[in-house]
Write a structure and sequence with these properties.
FAD binds at residues 324-328, 337, 398. Belongs to the xanthine dehydrogenase family. With 1289 residues, the chain is of the alpha+beta class. Helix content is 29%, strand content 21%. The protein contains 36 helices and 44 strands. β1 and β2 form a beta hairpin. α8 (284-297) runs antiparallel to α9 (303-311).
Length: 1289
């Protein structure tokens, strides 16, 4: 490990952290990030790390310093994972530990986030808190709308964001809940008088790296130019925010780093009547404010207001606060296919930049700049001329796969000079910039020339211009981009939108909707529930016991544990291609990395360890999950060896330098299920399931029949805490610490791998930073490798996977292709459904067989059919084996079923909502799982939600809206889900409970706390039995799940773990209650503490072990069903394919909730998780190598706060009746996910409205999921006829 932070000595680089001045140790190198310094040198583990791309927000800290030019004290959010520690020299950095915690008053932000149920797993919470804290430094009185935008760089995988936004918006000046805080009171640890300008070092390096790299910190332009002259022929990087490292990682691995942030000449801003001059290191955030101010002060710079708005969509708050506009241009210069928003907007505004070297400065237009050799040169400034008049129009667009923090499919900037008095004649050659097309295309020159002196209200002119643009826009094929045809259509539509917007005064009302982009209303939510105490505090809505520990960063996760003495860190070496044979490794370059220790591969395992982590619960033929491949590599990204080093950074760096030697295979890798189907690449075909009645005969009799096919794509878990493990040897054997959903399974697996008895293996899981099924078996591989390395080296070993490593090597939700045939009678009743499903299992097939069967058994969801037949095949491909992801079977089944029902309604020519209502399961019917619907509430819930959500009224309003808006359409749909909950488990649920002599209570349970509130519910159940004696929740402290304390325990999954462990807690607490009753009889007036002390002093054991062995109904595969009904309303921009979910209404039957506040968070979180699955999260594979190209936040897009329903209403069914379950409660963590499928069919309704308006064929629309904006636009099929100008006056 690093040597640790020490007080600064004279002249050494130093940094202030939480008010303390610290010297940066010399063993830090120019590649060391601020995050590594905080976590590994200072041991400040509250700041988390995940993506190392600035895309998830868990690493955010606050930096305060004097501005190099203005000398004003500024505070900004910083992605510490991207910021080099030497860039932070002289900064005052505040981390989550510095603003509040248990040892001092909690900060109001920490308090309110906890109070609003804004934490679940808690791993992302410090990042959200610090993002809010940073923003309040500069804007202490934000509006609620501004607060929502604060979190465009933060991802939460658990909560669904609503609760987080509610907590944070309580600080808004227009909030009725809390209001603003005193900024000075918030910042007692910061004293502006003690903050100096960051020191500079001229042309002398302040750090040297392991390869001779040097880090410079010049303090003037002259010093910078001298350094550029010195290194012009070397590999160097100019560093301002270093945010480009999150996109183009290889760009920053150079020999020389030059920090330009402290060069005052590059920060200049000069405003005049003739224009605006901006220095090169002015950040995007500063530019947003500067452009707004300039537009207000100088009328001829009015167009800058629109550019300012556009830049709010560039990257995220932390990136914009540190990244310079010139740095963005340099990304475009190096990677000319990069869709730079800065380039297109500045070029459309006729910007000229100044470039300097040792010989002087020169002016360049941006198109010339792209061809300029920039070695030894630096952008100094830019001049934006004052060009706005009442005849000038400036518009820009950014069309993205996700609302915020996403690069564009296509972006565009348009500048027109138009004379309205001459029928909107174009008086100057316009600027038409289109990005995202190719590395050679920027200006639409032919279109620009064509439009000169033409009228924008001339139908023939406009149609011809669109044709010209269509012909000159030739997008290149790119794997991670949308299709060339989509991008061409989008470019044409953006020009059309611009023309509609410019001519809005002359356009009829309905067509005007085509000009503006979609607006997203302020997010809000409603929660409707009744507490049912059984007894209190069980059933009460109480915040999670650990919530403040999470919001203060004090909650400890496995990788937060301090490093052990002599600990080694591990990193995978991954296979570069699929279907190859590894023949060796070249480690020469890796061995040069300081701290490199060794590398382990297959040969180190042979004869001593079992090269397989598959659990013995699977049949021998399915135990195929090897640690390192012994034959052919199964998939690109498969671990083929592991590097050991003294730090995680050294291990990661060295692993990236290992050269894998291999023999190529004879066949191309199979990277999509359609290829597997075409090549008949099959693991095996499962046994057919069918109703007793003849399904074929029933189908043949039906007067209305449909058949179709649906493809639902993969999904990555994207938990914010990555896969990690720590293993060390003790006298007793191996001690494993890992975030794992089945600790007992760890001991079983490691006993097999290490060939040691299980009494030598102890596994502990303190908490999990998001699991979603991915930490049930997938983390076993990491544990096994760490254990083997520990055994070989006799040193503690730890590994924490980078996001890109996890995305490449990790298991995912499988792609599924399902063909269906369905028949209904003329009365609209579904009579027969046939399914033939193909599940992409990946290169191996074990756990997926359980998931595939669950999916197959869930295909009926909430709808009855008299007969059914289901076939299921597991396909083999060159991908990681598939695994469980939240609602593993029901999530795809809900989507498949809904689209089949939609198709059937279309064929029947009936209202889809009415058709689904008619076919809901009714009490007494038997579902395809063989379960009788004895406690069925579906019909009641449907009718209640239909009324509560004003469906009839809103559908009328939608019809009116669609008539009045030609290019914006709304749609609404409803659906229902039924989720079978199984009580057939891996083992008993167990709770070890101890009442100490001071009255405090310790609990160890067999579940894994990962945000679902399990720990809190267990505590509630225990205290409920002891409340009569005076026990309260604040007396309870839960301990990590431990295999030594809880033998043969159950795993955590299937959503039922909370209720089962709560029952075990009740059993344990009842034992203690029975032992206390005699004491209470003798001392009826004694309080809790006196009773406990008396009992213990009397020899009464106040320790109990509670177990609960759960079972399904006799001869059935489940115990009960969790039911839900949902409605979603959306708005779609027909010309771009973008959409916004305006409102979602959910009603869940979860029986008697054990904690409604926690359960509503689970409902919202599952729903938004489903929105990601169905709408935004898309993987892409290289067809040659088989590599997953969606290996980070740049190409993989989980939902963010801006993507959630703008109006999010959750109802818990009141008086649901008793349920055949413990406490009459129902599981909630996974079932609601399937209701998000209604977002897809609501979008489908909107598309259908446009197609009907345009007279397009009335067909059932089919598409592959996720339903991204690109696919929406393709379904709209906007063509030349749809861009007619008959609507003009």
């Amino acid at each position: 490990m690093y040597s640790g932070g020490i007080a600064p000595s004279s002249g050494e680089p130093s940094i202030h952290v939480n008010g303390k001045a610290l010297e940066i140790p010399r063993d830090c190198n120019p590649e060391t990030s601020l995050n590594d310094f905080l976590r590994d040198v200072l041991n400040l583990k509250g700041t988390k790390v995940m993506c190392r791309e600035g895309g998830c927000g868990c690493c955010v800290v606050t930096a305060t310093y004097k501005h190099p030019a203005t000398e004003e004290v500024v505070s900004v959010p910083v992605n510490s994972c991207l910021c080099p520690v030497y860039s932070a020299v002289g900064w005052h950095v505040t981390t989550i530990e510095g603003i509040g915690g248990s040892g001092k008053p909690y900060h109001p932000i920490q308090e309110r986030l906890a109070e609003h149920y804004g934490t679940q797993c808690g791993f992302c919470s410090p990042g959200f808190v610090m993002s809010m804290y940073s923003q309040l430094q500069e804007n202490p009185k934000p509006t609620m709308q501004q607060v929502e935008h604060f979190f465009d760089g933060n991802i939460c995988r658990c909560t669904g964001y609503r609760s987080i936004l509610d907590g944070m918006k309580s600080f808004a000046c227009d909030s009725n809940n809390g209001g603003c805080v005193d900024i000075e009171e918030m910042n007692k640890s910061l004293c502006a008088e003690g903050i100096a300008k960051p020191p500079t070092s001229g042309v002398i390096p302040i750090a040297r790296g392991w390869k001779g790299q040097r880090f410079y910190n010049p303090g003037s332009l002259d010093q910078l130019l001298k350094l550029l002259k010195r290194y012009k022929d070397d590999e160097y990087q100019l560093v301002c925010g270093n945010t480009s490292a999150g996109v183009f990682k290889e760009d920053v691995l150079v020999n020389c780093y030059i920090n330009v942030r402290n060069v005052p000449e590059l920060h200049n801003i000069r405003l005049s009547k003739s224009g605006l001059e901006i220095g090169a290191t002015v950040t995007l955030r500063e530019l947003i404010d500067t452009f707004k101010e300039a537009a207000e002060k100088v009328p001829r710079l009015a167009h800058l207001d629109r550019i300012s708005d556009h830049y709010q969509q560039v990257a995220n708050q932390a990136v914009r606060a540190n990244a310079s506009w010139a740095g963005n241009l340099m990304m475009k210069h190096r990677h000319q296919d990069f869709p730079s928003d800065v380039f297109i907007t500045l070029e459309a505004a006729k910007t000229v930049i100044k470039v300097a070297d040792e010989q002087g400065t020169q002016d360049h237009v941006l198109t010339d700049f792209l061809r300029l050799d920039m070695r030894g040169k630096v952008i100094v400034s830019a001049k934006l001329p004052a060009i706005s008049t009442d005849q000038h129009f400036y518009r820009s667009f950014k069309i993205t796969p996700r609302q915020l923090n996403a690069h564009a499919y296509v972006n565009g900037a348009f500048q027109f000079a138009v004379d309205k008095r001459q029928n909107y004649r174009v008086t100057e050659r316009p600027n038409i910039l289109i990005g995202g097309i190719s590395d050679k295309f920027n200006h639409a020159i032919k279109t620009e020339n064509f439009l000169l002196n033409k009228s924008l209200l001339d139908e023939e002119v406009v149609q011809s211009a669109l044709k010209v643009l269509e012909s000159e826009v030739v997008p290149v094929e790119e794997a991670t981009a949308s299709s060339p045809e989509h991008r061409r259509q989008l470019a044409v539509n953006l020009l059309y939108k611009t023309i509609l917007d410019i001519g809005s005064d002359a356009v009829e009302g309905a067509a005007r909707s085509g000009g503006p982009v979609l607006t997203r209303p302020l997010q809000r939510g409603e929660q409707d529930f009744v507490e049912e105490l059984q007894p209190a505090p069980l059933g009460q809505s109480v915040r999670k016991l650990e919530s403040k520990a999470q919001t203060s960063g004090e909650a400890t996760y496995v990788n937060d544990y301090p490093a052990h003495a002599n600990e080694l860190f591990l990193a995978y070496v991954l296979a570069p291609e699929a279907a190859i044979k590894v023949i060796g490794f070249d480690t020469e370059e890796a061995e040069k990395v300081p701290g490199y220790h060794s590398m382990l591969s297959l040969k180190d395992l042979e004869g001593k360890y079992t090269n397989n982590t598959t659990m013995p619960i699977f049949p021998p033929e399915m135990q195929t999950d090897e640690i390192f491949p012994s034959k052919l590599v199964g998939f690109a990204g498969q671990p083929v060896s592991v590097v050991l080093a003294e730090t995680q950074w050294a291990a990661d760096r060295a692993a990236s330098l290992v050269d894998v030697k291999f023999d190529a295979g004879d066949e191309e890798p199979i990277v999509h299920i359609t290829e597997a189907l075409a090549k008949k690449s099959i693991h095996f075909k499962d046994a057919q399931r069918a109703s007793k009645e003849d399904a074929d005969a029933t189908l043949a009799k039906q007067p209305v029949r449909v058949e179709g096919e649906v493809t639902v794509g993969e999904q990555i878990h994207f938990f914010i805490e990555s896969l990690t493990a720590s293993v060390r040897r003790t006298e007793e054997g191996f001690l494993v610490q890992a975030p794992h959903q089945w600790i007992e399974g760890v001991t079983v697996m490691l006993s097999k791998v290490l060939r040691r008895p299980r009494n030598q293996i102890r596994a502990i899981s303190p908490r999990i930073g998001g699991g979603f099924g991915g930490k049930m078996f997938m983390v076993d591989h990491v544990i096994a490798v760490c254990a083997i390395a520990c055994d070989i080296t006799h040193r503690p070993c730890r590994m924490y996977l980078r996001l890109d490593t996890f995305a490449l090597s990790g298991q995912k939700r499988p792609t599924i292709v399902a063909k269906y045939k369905a028949g209904a009678d003329t009365d609209g009743f579904l009579r027969s459904v046939h399914w033939d499903s193909a599940v992409e299992a990946g290169y191996a097939c074990n756990f997926i067989t359980l998931i595939g069967r669950e999916m197959d058994d869930s295909l009926d969801q909430a709808y009855h059919a008299d007969t059914f037949k289901r076939d299921l095949t597991y396909m083999k491909s060159n991908k990681p084996q598939a695994t469980a992801v939240r609602a593993p079977g029901s999530a795809p089944a809900a989507m498949l079923n809904l689209l089949m029902m939609d198709h059937m309604a279309h064929e029947l020519r009936v209202d889809p909502i009415e058709f689904k209502r008619k076919n809901l399961y009714r009490a007494g019917q038997v579902d395809q799982h063989g379960m009788e619907r004895a406690d069925n509430n579906l019909g009641r819930m449907w009718d209640d939600l239909y009324k509560e959500a004003d469906i009839e009224k809103r559908r009328s309003a939608i019809e009116k809206f669609n008539k009045e808006n030609h290019y914006k359409k709304r749609g609404l749909d409803m659906s229902a889900i039924s989720y079978h909950i199984s009580y057939a488990r891996f083992g008993p649920s167990e709770v070890d409970m101890t009442v100490h002599i001071d009255g405090s209570i310790s609990i160890v349970h067999s579940g894994s706390e990962m945000g679902q509130g399990l720990t809190t519910k267990v505590a509630q159940a225990a205290v409920a039995q002891l409340a009569e004696f005076g026990a309260t929740l604040d007396m309870v402290k839960t301990k990590p799940t431990d295999s030594m304390l809880l033998p043969q325990m159950d795993g955590t999954g299937g959503s039922a773990t909370s209720e089962l462990n709560a029952m075990a807690a009740k059993v344990a607490a009842e034992q203690i209650r029975e032992r206390l009753l005699p004491i209470k009889e003798n001392k009826p007036d004694a309080g809790w503490n006196e009773l406990v002390m008396t009992a213990i002093m009397s020899g009464v054991l106040l320790k109990a072990f509670g177990t609960y062995v759960s079972q399904n109904r006799e001869n059935k595969h489940a115990r009960y069903s969790t039911l839900g009904v949902g409605a979603a309303e959306v708005e779609v921009d027909i010309l771009t394919g973008e959409y916004v979910v305006l409102r979602s209404d959910i009603m869940m039957d979860i029986g008697k909730s054990l904690n409604p506040g926690v359960d509503i968070g689970q409902i919202e979180g599952a729903y938004v998780f489903g929105m990601g699955y169905y709408l935004t999260e898309r993987t892409v594979y290289d067809s040659d190598t088989g590599r997953n190209l969606a290996d980070g936040t740049w190409n993989y897009k989980p939902p963010q706060a801006a993507d959630v329903p703008r109006d999010f209403r959750v109802h818990l069914l009141k008086k649901p009746g008793d349920t055949d379950s413990v406490f009459s409660t129902k599981a909630i963590g996974e079932p609601p996910l399937g209701l998000a499928a209604t977002c897809v069919t609501a979008i489908k309704r909107a598309i259908e409205a446009f197609r009907k308006q345009q007279g397009k064929p009335d067909v059932n629309l089919t598409f592959e999921l996720p339903l991204t904006p690109a696919r929406v636009l393709q379904l709209c099929e906007v063509g030349a006829k749809d861009r007619q100008f008959k609507m003009f006056k």
